[in-house]
Amino acid sequence: MTTLNQDTEVVLSAETFQRPLYQLAETLAQKVMREGPALLRAPSFVAVDLHVLMRQAMHTYDLFFYVNADERRDGDCYWRPTYTIVMLPLVRGMIDCLYNSTVILQSPRENGSWFRRSGFRKALEDLDELEEKYGGRPEWDGWIQTNRDGLDTQIRGCGLKMAEVLSQSSWPTLGKYISDKQPGGTLTPHQEFLKTLVHGRWREYSAMSHGAFEGLMKVGAYYTTDSMPHEDRPKIDAIHPKILYLHITRAAAILLCIITELQAHFRFDGAHINERIHKMWDALLPVFEVKELYNERYSQLIKDRRIEP
User: Fold this and answer.
1) 3-state secondary structure of 241
2) What's residue 10's pLDDT?
3) 170 φ/ψ sector (left φ>0, alpha ψ -120 to 50, else beta)
4) pTM, entire model
5) 2-31 pLDDT per residue, tens
6) In this model, does residue 186 exceed pLDDT 60?
7) How does DSSP classify residue 184?
8) Measured between alpha carbons, how far is 56 from 69 in angstroms, rounded to an integer?
9) What is the mean pLDDT of residues 46-57?
10) N or C: which end of the chain has fewer CB within 10 A?
11) At how many degrees (to 10) do helices 108-134 and 90-106 cross?
12) With contact defined as beta carbons under 8 Å apart, do 170 and 82 qualify?
């Protein structure tokens, strides 16, 4: 993959990170599931939620490669560059996986329980709204009750009580989290880091997912190529490889951030995890956005937590 990166052409081989990064993520996901509960000193479901967040991020990352594989782009007559573009908001979901994971890891017992209790409460509130709107209709009453019973079983299965679920405050969105200033009107280093991922070049993912004009301005041409003059259409296809490079490497960066955060907290042994983390950072650091994240947080975090190759 080749593009202009801060006025310097960068050539990056996907072979250096595509599969190795996915395999490293799978190693961490399995470690969290199997060894995490004993290390967290928190309810066992906290490790499960971290495992699922990692899996969501890694499968999103893998989807970009699946859809844009050479054999599809070159050999499938039904493939369109638009498929890459319409997937781009999924990177915003990966950013949320990073956010949720890091906040949970700040205090696994308290924040991990908060994360799950808040989710249960919102699910129950959804049923309350449906019951208020459709209650009394047989086709709805049975479905709503079945779902209430299912949630009640899950809540009790987690060792939680219905009263504490119903009184739980909402888990903050990423936007709210980074805007809640500390005493004295400051933000924590963690908030400042996450703020990077919703501003500047990263802001476009949220704009695309919400169908905002500033998002459509970036990608709208791909949705309307058939309405453009015939002589302009090849220009849109010609820049697709650079767009693909940019967003795949950003997705890789977010996945590597999650991996590094988990290893920094758990410090798992075996599987050459630390060495593999260093190799992935080395492979991706030529990319401007990756280097920015590394310099802002991960260079120091790796040193502080002694993630040594």
Assistant:
1) helix
2) 76
3) beta
4) 0.94
5) 444 555 667 888 999 999 999 999 999 999
6) yes
7) T
8) 20
9) 98
10) C
11) 130
12) no
